[in-house]
Amino acid sequence: MGKIILDKMAMQRALTRITYEIVEKNKGVEDLVLIGIKTRGIFLANRIADRLQQLENVTIPVGELDITNYRDDIEHDSTSSDVKMSNNKIDFSVEGKRVILVDDVLYTGRTVRAALSAVMDLGRPKSINLAVLVDRGHRELPIRADFVGKNIPSSQKEKIKVYVSEIDDKDAVELIK
Amino acid sequence: MTQRYLILEDGSAYAGKAFGSLATTTGELVANSTMNGYQEIISNQIYHNQIIVFTQTSIGNTGLAQNAYESVLPTAKGVIVREYENLATDHFKRISLDRYLKRHKIPGIYDVDTRQIRRHLQQKGNMKASIVDVADEHAFDQLHATVLTNQQVAQVATPKPYPNPDEGANVIVVDFGLKSGILRELSKRDCNITVVPWNSTSETILDLDPDGVVLSTGPGAPGNLPESVLQMIREVQTQVPLFGIGLGHELFAMANGAKISQLRVEHHGSNHPIREIITNEIFFSGQEQGYAVDSKSIDHAKLFITHIDLVNGTVQGLRHRDYPAFSVQFSPDGAPGPKDSVGLFDDFTEFMARRRDNNGDEY
Amino acid sequence: MATNIKKLLLLGGGPTNIGHENELDAAAYERLSAIKRTGAQVIYVDNNPFSFASEEVQPADVYVQEVNFQNVVNIIEKEKPDAIMPKIGGLNAMQVAWQLEESDVLANNNIQLLGIRPIDLKKVLDNQQLRELLDETGEPIIASKIVASDDEAMDFVRDVGFPVIVKPLSASHDTSRFICNNTDEMEDALEISFKRTYIKWVSIEQSIVGYKEIEMVAIRDENGNKLLISGLEDMDPIGIHSGDSIIFAPTQTLINQEYQSLRTATFRIMDAINITGTCHIQFAQSRTDSNYFVTKVSPFFTRNALLAAKSTGYPLSYVSTLLEMGYALPEIKLPEKYSKYLPFMEPTMDHVVVRIPLWPFRDIPDVDQHLNTLMKSVGSTIGIGRTVEEAIMKAMHSSQFSPRDILPSVSKISDDDVINQLIHPLASRILILMEAIRRGFSIDELSELTKIDRFYFYKMNQLLRAQDFVINNPLSPTAVEVGHKYGFGDGMLAELWNVNISTIERMNRNSKTKVTFKEVEPSAGEFLETTNVFYSSYELENESQPCVGKTALIIGRGGNQLGPNAAADYYTAQVLDTAHKAGYKTIIMNTNPNAISLAPALSDKQYIEPIQLGNILNIVNLEKPDIIFLPGNRHYLSKKLKEFADLNIVVLPPDQKVAKYNQRKATDAVDLFIDHDRILPITTISFYTNSHRTELRYINNYQQPMNHWQTDEQKLIDLAINKIDTSQWQGLVQVLFNRIDDQSGYQFSGIRPIRITESAFLNKTTGINWIDALVKKYLGILDIDHLSEYYQPGTHKRYAMMEAVFPFKELQSNRKDGTSTQEVGSSLSFKNIES
Fold first, then answer.
1. Catalytic residue numbers of B?
2. What is the structure's pLDDT at A159?
3. Which residues of C touch A170 (CB under 8 A)?
4. Which of B358, C275, C457, C615 has its CA 20 to 30 A from that of C550?
5. pLDDT (tens digit, 9 = 90+) per residue, B182-214?
6. SS3 category, B303
7. Å from B324 to nearest chain C CA?
């Protein structure tokens, strides 16, 4: 059974906080682009872009990074060391831009590492920052989130599930034992 | 039933019956339209030197409970109601309104047309008023002659720092006449609070090694406070997350270059929708407001406007562009009032946590 | 955003009954004016003959059919609407909507469901899913379990604690329930239950009997913006259906913390079910601590939603409609007379509203009058004042249908009976409670016995003392002042002191407290709203300015009653409409919060005041209307009013007392419209009945045209016209005949004014608004020539049938046949005539 750690309101507030922090750190929205990872990161990135629109009245481009396993005999989970990018949708250049990668949960760091490679393959951004809704600890790589919605320490036996209303019918972050 | 009068600066007088103390008082007349929470309102130090007219007709129905006061010593100058109940109903072991007012020497008048008074006030704008035994020329003379103090904050705020210990983040609350609701919400989030006097310097505050600083609510005009307070804010905001509420918000704005104007009629209630600009959503919150940040005076290179009152257009929230410093005009703790925006306290604790995690890293 | 909706299917509420009277129609009316502004076409389904709203829709777009799955499917196939709006059809319409969704009809026809998403509709209508949803939201619900043995029951109790309610679950309508406070009682209850041979399962749940019942009405738009319209407090605790409770707005005994918790809970639930428009949620609030439970979620327009709207002055139905169609709250634009901030400000009240239910027991005396969780009231009435006492008193006045403005006495009831009624409440509760106080019961005792908050007893005690003071000080100016302050109308003072009301009027002129009218508006004086709804109080400032120009005052019927039921208010609404179209500024006086006649768009000004002599005179003195309409026979009232100077009073229709009968049997009738010496035939009617009774008062079903119309219609019409002496009969008149068999022909039975219910029927079936014609006649502007040219009863293509609805099943009575005074509604249907 899942316990709701962040309800809809809390999720919204977290994204709002992240948005302010992005503007604060970047001293504005110049050259800012957002790239959402996997499915849910994309929706979160869009929500952050909406907020930036409301706040600064500018349209920030949002790209999509769809990371799937290259080899189909390996289980689809982020602990696999062989990941390959496909189905990306980034129709802007990252050259000289401040890229903000957006993901729902930061865990081992492997997905992010792959995302970093993917972005750098596309060009030479000015900087890459990471924004995540939830940081659950247990990093296996030296990856750190610059913007965190909420820290949720968890054991490796537990699962953290993020629901977004765009596809899941509700907004929530659940901890499943 | 003793008859008493509420007399207004513009010469009007209203006769009613006395309850509470029989003191004669003078203060600014304000109308509050909140429908619940008269206890929280009367004990809120924002109402220092003010006479409160309640538009809600029955006040006192539920008595007063020990855990719902917004301050220890209320300093309102009067309570005007249509119908008052001298009740202390069973649960929560309450005392009655009459006893409370008598104890704190606050006079009350009931059996008056409070709706008429409110509409009159709305038309005429802010006014001084007195509660007197006789509404004669002498009383009016006294009223006109009375100059209300501009030292409200000094009169109600704590003169010495005091702790409110807990295990979590270190929070310094700068007391301008704070309402307990602020402390309650911080306590709920385990904050280890130290309340310091309004005129503390930034050195004093920063020496206490805060994770965050809260600028509290309080009575009166922000312009009554010296420049040193603004200086303190400017220095503190660069070092730690800052959260200003009510008067604290106004001071935050001034410290960052904005101007304050006085509202023609003070607004006390929770019926105005407030728009959060970044999400474009509206919500409600308790507002006790006599002054507002002038939106035209805001330096947009320094501050975001984060919230707006949709009815009167006033700035209801600000945030600094460069620091995790933000403020709101309304009372997110909701005592009384909706708790729609209580999440702002969570924001504050998250900003503090973020800072601790990053160990004060430079970005 | 839903501006792309071109054709909207609106499901109506159907015939009125216990549980819903006019409120759905009133809501529908407001809704239609909102939809009109968006330009969408409306298809309306309703078989309620007393629906005023359906007449606002193009006749071709109205389907007079029962709102059920099959009918709606057929209509969808024919009309192909873009969207469907079930929320003002009550629970029935919501269920039909669900069936449409389940069977993919909506998907297959590309129809948008407005107000709630299908997936959420399912959750709300299925009890188990709703419980799970609430659980997930973190909102507390009553623990309950179905058990088959004593052991299981004990397990439950170990977890949840006492008290619990044990309910045997049976296929038959066994509604017995046992409240158990300890193990002994529970074991007894289980033994009794399981002993019955057909009982295998028993439901056991946490008992919240005695908890305070608090209701919240709120709205939400599709962006998640939410606003609370009002909280309502039921004076009667959980255990009495909220429809039968005495309700106060705003809440009176909640502290800020409790109120905000419930408000927040309401918002969270609305978010969880993603609704747009109105939502009404009921809670059980502990009297001893801050715990609460969610007891009912109604994400559609309900009676109490309308009560919240009327209490605050907020145009709820109008705004709700736009929200359901996809408009965001800040985008809502209201008709000009309202302040532009109004839609998105949370209403604040500076007055008190008390709602008292009205009972059917006088007309159906042989039913169990004890109040419990099954609703028994047929209507309600409200009183508005500036103090709680004043509002209570005015509500009580409004609930008296006796012409004399006095409250019935309960002083003859024995002490035992009083106690009995305290524990097992009957109707007229407030009188019993006051009597108990008078007899010396302590407030603590009373509160404990009845579980009603002590606050209310303090208030009733105040009322009692005021009443005693007034009785003991006849004709003293102070007593008049006290009386006024506490809501005793002038009429009541006159009755108490046994003087003519003009004596009181004279005293008023010298009194320093004059009657003042305050506006019901949602900003508590912050904005100069012009809702144009007023109530009286004795304060300093009067806010009501007399209307300028020709004015018509229409005196409503007050709360809904059996007999004329919803038709009475339909009638009133028609009168209002006609007067308005005739160029009069219309002023309505009424106290029924569910009334269509109080729909804001239907009049220029509203007074929510007890329909009693004193109150009427206060309004008449201020407004000085050119004409006063008294729809529905109010014999006593019109007589009394006529004593006062030259008031131009029109009573419509005339009293049934003037009817003349040869015999009390009839099978057919001819309806006529008589203006001066012109007699215009309207149509012919056959009566039919579902019972064996033949007396006229048991005949409550109509068919138009009559049987054998092909051969007998003209004959009968001629016969009827012959019977009329136009010096005696005017307006809408019915001539009754009794047909025995083919040989004997038609016996003349009598003449009577056309009943209110039948007038509505005629409107619906003939396509002519006869009530409108009647009003025009009395206004002196009827063009009878034009009417007679335009309307000729001729060939008939279909039969129209109106069948009365009785509340016997709802009241758990075994009665089968009802008299016309027991009707609670009617249903309308059409049948094609085989050619």
1. 333
2. 93
3. 272
4. C615
5. 999 999 999 999 999 999 999 999 999 999 999
6. strand
7. 27
> Residue C121 in contact with residue C98, Cβ under 8 Å?
yes
CB B318 within 8 A of CB B300: no
Q: Return the residue of B nearest to C519 by Cα.
A: B115
CATH class for the domain made up of C517-656: alpha beta
Cβ-based burial of C708 (10 A; exposed 0-12, middle 13-18, buried ≥19): middle
Residue B329 and residue B250 share a domain: yes
A8 touches chain C (CB under 8 A): yes
**Residue C692 pLDDT > 80:** no
Same domain? For B246 and B261 the reply is yes
pLDDT of residue B213: 98
For residue C331, give every residue at least 6 positions away whose Cβ sits within 8 Å of its Cβ, in sequence order, or none.
Answer: none
Split at pLDDT 50, 70, 90, the class of A69 is very low
Please tell me the predicted confidence (pLDDT) of residue B91.
Answer: 58
Q: Are residues B138 and B165 in the same domain?
A: no
Binary contact (B337, C260; C-beta < 8 A): yes
In chain C, CATH 3.30.470.20 sits at: 127-138+210-347, 659-832
Q: Which chains pack against A, by 3+ Cβ pairs within 8 A?
A: B, C
Based on the domain organization, do B249 and B210 belong to the same domain? yes
pLDDT band at A88 (very low <50, low <70, confident <90, very high): confident
Q: What's the predicted TM-score (pTM) here?
A: 0.93
Q: Please indicate if any CB of chain B lies within 8 Å of the CB of A137.
A: no
CATH of C127-138+210-347, one of 3.40.640.10, 3.40.50.360, 3.40.190.10, 3.30.470.20: 3.30.470.20
Give the Cα separation of B30 and B122 in Å (integer). 10
Which positions in chain C touch B283 (Cβ < 8 Å)? 225-226
How far apart, in whole angstroms, are the C-alpha atoms of residue C226 and residue C479? Answer: 47
- Domain total of chain B: 2
* Among candidate residues C586, C793, C763, the one with its CA nearest the CA of residue C684: C793
* B223, B181 contact by CB (below 8 A): no
Cα B319 from Cα B327, distance rounded (Å): 6
CATH tag, C7-114: 3.40.50.20
For range B69-95, the mean pLDDT: 84
Q: Give me the residue from B36, B122, B270 closest to C254, CB to CB.
A: B36
pLDDT tens figures, C592-604: 999 999 999 899 9
Residues of C in CB contact (< 8 Å) with A are: 119, 136, 138, 271-272
If contacts are CB pairs under 8 Å, which of residues 164-223 in chain B contact chain C?
none
Query: Nearest by CB to B354, which of A23, A27, A148?
Result: A148
Smallest Cβ distance to A169: which of C119, C138, C271?
C119
pLDDT at C797 over 90: no
B210, B172 contact by CB (below 8 A): yes
Look at B99-108, B195-204, C91-100 and tell me which has the smallest mean pLDDT: C91-100
Q: Look at residue C633 and tell me whether its pLDDT is greater than 80.
A: no
Tell me if B35 and C250 make a contact (CB, 8 A cut-off): yes
Mutate to test the interface with B, among C256, C268, C352, C536 (most CBs of B within 10 A): C256
Nearest chain C residue to B54 by CA: give it.
Answer: C350
Residues in chain A: 177
* Interface mutation target, options B243, B319, B350, B357, chain A, most CBs of A under 10 Å: B350
